[in-house]
Structures are given as C-alpha cells and as structure tokens.
Specification:
59 residues; rod-shaped; Ribosomal_zn-bd; structural constituent of ribosome; Large ribosomal subunit protein bL32; ribosomal protein; ribonucleoprotein
C-alpha cells in the first residue's frame, strides 16, 4: 500500500481545494411589485413585499 514519504503542506492542500471554491456573484431578480433588483427568495428591501404579499410595512 502506498504511503506518502512526507507530510503534505498546507499550501499544497489549499491549492488543490481552491479550484472547487470559486466564488460566484449571486444573481439578482427584479421585484414583481416595484421592479427593483433584489436577492432571490428574500423580502424586497424597497417595498417590503414577498411572493405578492406585503410582509414588512414600508414607511
């Protein structure tokens, strides 16, 4: 059975894993109520609507 001769360094381990951790900017969707950009599956910060209902009272 093959056994490594030396300990693998942190740099080698992290470099190997770095390819799987590419960060991608989250996509934005437009709010169906006020048409402002917002994060998907979240309450609209502008009008306070979520799924067609007013969840947060906007002033």
């Amino acid at each position: 059975m093959a056994v490594p001769k030396r300990k693998t360094g942190k740099c080698d381990t992290r470099s190997r894993r770095a390819a799987n951790m590419k960060m991608v900017a989250p996509g934005f969707v437009s709010c169906p109520n006020c048409h402002e950009p917002k994060m998907p599956h979240r309450v609209c910060p502008e009008c306070g609507h979520y799924k067609g209902k007013e969840v947060v009272v906007s002033e």
